[in-house]
Backbone:
């Protein structure tokens, strides 16, 4: 039995050693990658200057045409992240501040995402390779249930989110394989789908009275003299529960309601996402009203 | 509690410690601990079905004794059939009732008689097909006086409910496991080390091969109408490796865990994808089930002793029943039927036992023939797997038809945001490793074993899939 216990101890030590080595290798690769996603672009950069930074979920990523800002002489980038919540938008802004970005305006898409203040695991995982190299990221995750495992167990975060930051992603990052996430200054145009679902039901959705991360973004902007513009973006007209946007307006009067700027189905790729034509009409309206 | 879960990683060392350091006085204390651990393990799925497991165990224990004690043939027969009917009754009720009810209703509707079936809203108790077959073989063996009845309820319960084999086999025989349970186990370092090898290799098969192939196979099978020929071929290959990695990985872990407790379980897989014909495949795939059906169905039906038609009838019965054992769906029956059709030419030409000896390759034409026969056996196995995996038989036919008529062999981007070709290298590497180890029971044993263990752990951590897919396929059977 003694021999067996020694043998098992050896295997455990080998496992720990492998975990440390893999953790170091994966983190090193992510620390030296900057053409795969918006998070690593921000993390591996510093001292950027922007007139406009756009934040939010896919309804920001697919709705704000960053080139149209540039055409007006405004340096802009769309940092909206498909699938993301305000948890990630807030962390992204904090990271920019940590990286000493100078930002004049932040446009935040704040509508459906006000209904929760959880992390979107698929997106928040993309911050995790840097958790040991950024106090901001560490602090942001500190209140999450599995923080201890993610932070202290070597390689655990890469195992837990292997489909986001696992071997495949690390391999592509190591070979600097480019994605289209950073094309078009971060804006991802959608096309019109013939058989797209043009119905939505948001009857049961309610904005949180005090969304922690929305308030956080607001206060970061205030503390850093950034002009904060929060907007609700369009949704297709065949949506049940349209009064959600009125409820948002009641709770957060400072958020500008642009939900009904684009209505017709021909401007939508799916019910919650405009196509490129719709996004251009919407962006033109924003530019006209704020810049 | 899955073998590849954190919960099991905590459960196993605790039971191991208690088994060898606290409850190691005699075989009774060892067995008592294993029974408690097994019931806890089972109740982690659904504690309510624990009552069914205990009832089923008690039924076979009691009827086994009554059969042995029975003075008249009539009395022996009574207890024998009681056990058979109740066991199959439970299996039928939980697993097959809804299938038969809805199929019967569809049949009536098709001839113009309106009928709506009364369906049961019950979930399938995990492992019911496995522990029912344990009990059945035990009672049948007593009835035919091959073994003596077990009078110690704890020992018998352990034979049925032993946690490594409880939910997905291997399907044990009383003649093999009960004698081991009857004696105190002494710790053996070499056996335990072999167990660790087998657990680690089983995990490689499960998380690196099966769980990695699963999202690709799912993305292809779930959207087969928009897939091209290349993707559809890859879908069948991915599923072939998914189910092999999943089930043989589970069996390896089960055998390895059991070795830690000094109990040897029946080998369930022997590199089936290196079979040279379908008969050899069935001697290497899910061995404990194949041999169960051979001993308790095929031979009692007359086996291959009768005339040609009897042999053919028995072959089809055993394969169709084996397919139906997997699940209450026509697709499984079709899968069994197809395998019987594959087997038929070998039976008719009396060549079903041609490939008994180990595969040896040399630089000659015969070796090319061997490789081609392995490849063709794998190919027809993949065709059968399409029926096993498809939701309906017509889906399977359309899937295969599309492979033939589409003829587009370009790489497709799948729903899981991956390209259809991406796992080819991984599978190729796995096949090479398996080929290299094809004559070994423990791929990690032998020279450089610690290095092999380290590489296997590295593979699990770096290449394993942990977030997309977890369950073992055979738990649903």
Residues:
């Amino acid at each position: 039995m003694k021999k067996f216990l020694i043998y098992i101890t050896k295997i455990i030590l080998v496992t720990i050693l492998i975990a440390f080595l893999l953790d170091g290798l994966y983190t090193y690769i992510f620390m030296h990658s900057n053409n795969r996603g918006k998070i690593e672009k921000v993390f591996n950069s510093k001292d950027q200057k922007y007139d406009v930074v756009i934040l939010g979920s896919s309804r920001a990523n697919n709705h704000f045409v960053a080139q149209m800002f540039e055409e007006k002489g405004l340096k802009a980038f769309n940092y909206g992240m498909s699938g993301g919540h305000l948890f990630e938008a807030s962390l992204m802004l904090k990271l920019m501040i940590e990286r000493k970005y100078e930002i004049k305006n932040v446009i935040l898409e704040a509508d459906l995402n006000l209904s929760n203040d959880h992390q979107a695991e698929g997106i928040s995982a993309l911050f995790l390779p840097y958790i040991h190299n950024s106090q901001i990221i560490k602090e942001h995750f500190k209140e999450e249930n599995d923080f201890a495992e993610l932070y202290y167990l070597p390689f655990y975060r890469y195992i837990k989110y292997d489909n986001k930051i696992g071997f495949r992603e690390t391999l592509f990052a190591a070979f600097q394989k480019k994605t289209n996430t950073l094309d078009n200054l971060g804006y991802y145009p959608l096309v019109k789908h013939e058989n797209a679902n043009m119905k939505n039901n948001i009857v049961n959705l309610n904005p949180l009275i005090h969304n922690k991360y929305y308030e956080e973004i607001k206060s970061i902007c205030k503390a850093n003299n950034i002009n904060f513009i929060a907007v609700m973006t369009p949704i297709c007209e065949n949506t049940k529960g349209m009064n959600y946007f009125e409820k948002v307006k009641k709770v957060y009067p400072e958020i500008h309601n642009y939900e009904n700027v684009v209505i017709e189905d021909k401007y939508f790729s799916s019910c919650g996402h405009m196509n490129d034509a719709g996004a251009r009409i919407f962006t033109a309206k924003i530019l006209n009203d704020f810049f | 509690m899955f073998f590849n879960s954190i919960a099991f990683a905590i459960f196993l060392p605790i039971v191991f410690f208690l088994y060898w350091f606290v409850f190691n006085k005699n075989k009774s204390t060892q067995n008592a601990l294993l029974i408690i651990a097994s019931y806890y393990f089972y109740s982690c799925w659904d504690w309510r079905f624990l009552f069914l497991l205990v009832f089923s165990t008690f039924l076979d224990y009691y009827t086994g004794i009554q059969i042995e004690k029975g003075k008249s043939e009539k009395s022996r027969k009574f207890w024998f059939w009681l056990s058979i009917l109740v066991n199959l009754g439970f299996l039928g009720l939980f697993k097959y009732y809804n299938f038969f009810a809805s199929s019967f209703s569809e049949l009536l509707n098709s001839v113009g008689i309106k009928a709506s079936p009364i369906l049961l809203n019950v979930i399938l108790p995990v492992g019911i097909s496995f522990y029912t077959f344990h009990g059945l073989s035990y009672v049948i063996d007593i009835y035919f006086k091959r073994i003596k009845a077990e009078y110690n309820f704890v020992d018998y319960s352990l034979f049925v409910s032993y946690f490594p084999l409880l939910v997905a086999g291997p399907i044990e025989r009383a003649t093999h496991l009960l004698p081991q349970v009857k004696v105190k186990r002494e710790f053996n370092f070499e056996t335990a080390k072999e167990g660790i090898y087998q657990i680690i290799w089983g995990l490689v098969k499960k998380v690196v091969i099966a769980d990695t192939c699963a999202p690709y196979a799912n993305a292809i099978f779930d959207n087969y109408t928009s897939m091209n020929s290349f993707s559809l071929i890859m879908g069948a290959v991915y599923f072939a490796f998914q189910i092999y990695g999943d089930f043989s990985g589970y069996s390896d872990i089960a055998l390895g865990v059991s070795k830690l407790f000094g109990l040897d379980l029946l080998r369930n897989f022997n590199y089936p994808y290196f079979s040279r014909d379908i008969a050899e495949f069935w001697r290497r795939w899910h061995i404990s089930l194949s041999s169960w059906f051979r001993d308790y169905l095929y031979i009692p039906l007359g086996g291959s002793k009768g005339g040609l038609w009897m042999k053919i009838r028995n072959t089809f019965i055993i394969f169709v029943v084996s397919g139906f054992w997997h699940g209450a769906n026509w697709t499984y029956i079709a899968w069994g039927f197809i395998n019987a059709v594959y087997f038929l030419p070998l039976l008719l030409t009396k060549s079903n036992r041609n490939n008994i000896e180990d595969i040896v390759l040399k630089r000659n034409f015969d070796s090319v023939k061997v490789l081609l026969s392995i490849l063709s056996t794998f190919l027809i196995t993949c065709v059968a797997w399409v029926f096993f995996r498809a939701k309906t038989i017509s889906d399977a036919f359309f899937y295969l038809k599309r492979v033939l008529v589409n003829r587009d062999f370009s790489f497709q981007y799948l729903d899981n945001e991956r390209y259809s070709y991406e796992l080819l290298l991984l599978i190729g590497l796995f096949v090479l490793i398996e080929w290299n180890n094809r004559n070994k029971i423990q791929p990690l044993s032998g020279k450089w074993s610690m290095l092999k263990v380290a590489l296997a752990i590295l593979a699990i951590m770096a290449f394993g899939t942990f977030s997309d897919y977890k369950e073992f396929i055979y738990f649903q059977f």
